[in-house]
Specification:
Elements lengths: L1 H13 L6 E5 L18 E6 L5 E6 L2 E6 L3 E2 L11 H10 L2 H9 L1 H13 L1 H4 L3 E5 L5 H10 L3 E5 L4 H11 L6 E4 L14 E4 L18
Parallel strand pairs: 6-7, 6-9, 7-8
Antiparallel strand pairs: 1-2, 1-5, 2-3, 3-4
Helix pairs in contact: 4-6
Bound molecules: S-adenosylmethionine.
S-adenosylmethionine binds next to helix 2 and helix 6.
GO biological process, one term: methylation
Keywords: Methyltransferase, S-adenosyl-L-methionine, SH3 domain, Transferase
InterPro entries: Arg_MeTrfase, Methyltransf_25, SAM-dependent_MTases_sf, SH3-like_dom_sf, SH3_domain
Amino acid sequence: KVGETKERDDEDRVKESAEPEELVAIADYTAVDETQLSFCRGEKLLVLRRVTAEWWWGEREGRCGYIPASYVMQSLEDPEPEDTWQDEEYFGSYGALRLHLEMLSDQPRTAVYHQVILQHKEFLQDKVILDVGCGTGILSLFCAHYARPRAVYAVEASEMAQHTKQLVLHNGFADKITVFQQKVEDVTLPGKVDVLVSEWMGTCLLVGEKTFPIWR
Ligand SMILES: C[S@@+](CC[C@H](N)C(=O)[O-])C[C@H]1O[C@@H](n2cnc3c(N)ncnc32)[C@H](O)[C@@H]1O
């Protein structure tokens, strides 16, 4: 179905425009040869023919040439502000202690991560570690406690990060672990990292030695 829709979209994009269509450039573009048009963001361009899904034939200031289709739109205005309700609901639920208590009490889950970090403590020593979605910071704390890493960046988007800062402090790792209350997509870290650790699945993880031989 997805393939069909894409093919249909491509067909629509390449079909000949019945009428020339005036579109707006959404970014600057510099032609790489004489068959293409150069233009600046905000300029109006006349699209004469949608030759392929990627390249349209158009006109700018009386000159014709190819325009990259992804550089033009109906208008410069942002079509729809990004929906944030899903993030609010998701991170809202992780902001409460209850879910974290459930995860920490999931003994097989927490014990497996504990075991893996312990088994790799030599490897983790002196490394810079990023804990993606650190929650209460349990993985960061395991790393800091067992492996003597150079630094641990613990990133958590929900309000839990505020508790995690306290947990780090009270466990005596404030000089090792830095907690960032941000989405990992948005965070700017102080530097490059060597190792990623992350537990993003929550509770009731099914484990098997055959599937994950690293745990042995
Ligand atoms: C399954 S929980 C695991 C928490 C913790 N790592 C543990 O093992 O107890 C996943 C956590 O990742 C956080 N998270 C999910 N997506 C994130 C994102 N894009 N940026 C930062 N944190 C995120 C959630 O808020 C949640 O606290």
